[in-house]
Design goal:
The structure is a single chain. The protein is built from two helices and eight strands. The strands form two sheets. It has a four-stranded mixed beta sheet with strand order 1-4-3-2, covered by helices on one side. It has a four-stranded mixed beta sheet with strand order 5-8-7-6, with helices on one face. 26% of the residues are buried. α1 packs antiparallel against α2. Helix content is 22%, strand content 39%. It is α/β, with parallel strands linked by helices and 122 residues long. The chain has a single domain, classed as 2,3-Dihydroxybiphenyl 1,2-Dioxygenase, domain 1 (Roll), CATH 3.10.180.10.
């Protein structure tokens, strides 16, 4: 149902380095790019993620209650994504662990404060 998720950034170069590393771990890369926007994913594949400087020219801000979830292949990849994010200056929002019902997840914020979750079911 979700085609892609776009998050705002105030520093596209800094954010791009963060998401390049996350995408590489997930086996994908950039597939669209302009001066103000980059998208990662696989053309014709599952939902991707985009980063943009806001079109209206105002500063990007974090949405309260907004989160983008990244589907991992297994628990080990959840752990790697979390460790990678932390090594790149992400803010911890809850380390890897079982959240009940077979939901294993880790939560963190990117350099702009956007909340992300790496998860796997089962």
């Amino acid at each position: 149902m979700i085609g892609y998720v776009t998050l705002g950034t105030n520093d596209l170069a800094r954010a791009a380095a963060f998401y390049d590393a996350i995408a590489k771990e997930m086996g994908c890369g950039r597939f669209m790019e302009s001066e103000t926007f980059i998208a990662w994913g696989v053309p014709g594949g599952a939902a991707g993620i985009g980063l943009t400087k806001p079109f209206d020219g105002n500063a990007a801000s974090v949405g309260n209650g907004v989160m983008a979830a990244l589907q991992a292949t297994d628990r080990a990849q959840v752990d790697r994504l979390y460790a990678l994010a932390m090594s790149m200056g992400a803010q911890d929002e809850g380390g890897p662990g079982d959240r009940g019902g077979g939901f294993y997840a880790a939560y963190f914020r990117d350099p702009d404060g956007n909340k992300l979750n790496a998860f796997v079911m089962g």
